[in-house]
Amino acid sequence: MKKKYILSFAILLVLSLALAACGGSKQLTMLTGGTGGTYYPLGGEISNIISDQTDTTVTPSTSNASAENIEALAEGEADIAFTQTDVMSNAADGINAFEGKAIDNVLAIGSLYPETIQIVTTKDSGITSVEDLKGKAVSVGAPGSGTYVNAEQILAAHGLDIETDIKAQKLDFDESTGGIQDGNIDAAFITAGTPTGSVEGLSATNEITIVPIAQDKIDELVKQFPYYAADTIPKGTYGLESDVTTVAVLAMLAVTDSLSEDDVYEITKAIYENTSKITHAKGKLISLDTALNGIGIDLHPGAEKYYKEKGLLD
């Protein structure tokens, strides 16, 4: 009987210590994107950095990215999320996918790296310009993604309507490249840091082409939508024979305003002071020097405190 009592006490003690250990760490969820894009692998690494450097444990989760992520933050279904700066700006202004439902309880941590708009097709498709997409089956991004808005704006700049001039397919990155490979679609808009995993996978089995955007259309897009910037996909990426001109937006991290100033300060500090630990190729582009680029919404007070300490804000 005595031995049984001692054993029971030992088990309870171990459980108590385990619970105490868990209780010392806050549990947060980070929404990333689809597994074929950049958000998912990069989000995993950033989550690990935050978990290692603070008393907050962050668990990454897949999603349809951008617009869906912002809505989840606003509804309290997640704590931190990746999104595009343009989509975040639309959410704050209550336009495009957020028409009539402006979001005011999501704040910024900081921007990360350029996200390139890639119009992917195969060399055999014969598609060499945006105008050539007319009448074709084209993936315009998953429902709720920033890619859809980018596709709509770029097509419009070339005189094409997303609903009537193309056969729009709302697919995620993996579905898009799979559809091209299987011959079910002709091309796909993919907004992600290059090189993008799903596009690399397609280029391993097919000779691909990235459709360029002409300089006059780039200038028009940047003038109309200041969150765009001219970008170039370098020769050699995906086996490309020459550089491809296009546009990009910025990836950023957003956060619910319900998180405390102290927690977000520590999270922001952990990210921007440990970028050297990020092995993903986009880690080289994440820098404190560019953390405020393209941010069109208010910063979370915790992030603002960190940037003021670093002399980036008055």
TrEMBL record:
Signal peptide start-end: 1-20
Record keywords: Signal
One Pfam family of this chain: NMT1_3
InterPro entries to which the protein is assigned, alphabetical: TRAP_TAXI (IPR011852)
PROSITE patterns: PROKAR_LIPOPROTEIN
UniProt-listed SUPFAM superfamilies: Periplasmic binding protein-like II
Record's keyword annotation contains Signal: yes
NCBIfam families: TRAP_TAXI
Name the record gives this protein: C4-dicarboxylate ABC transporter substrate-binding protein
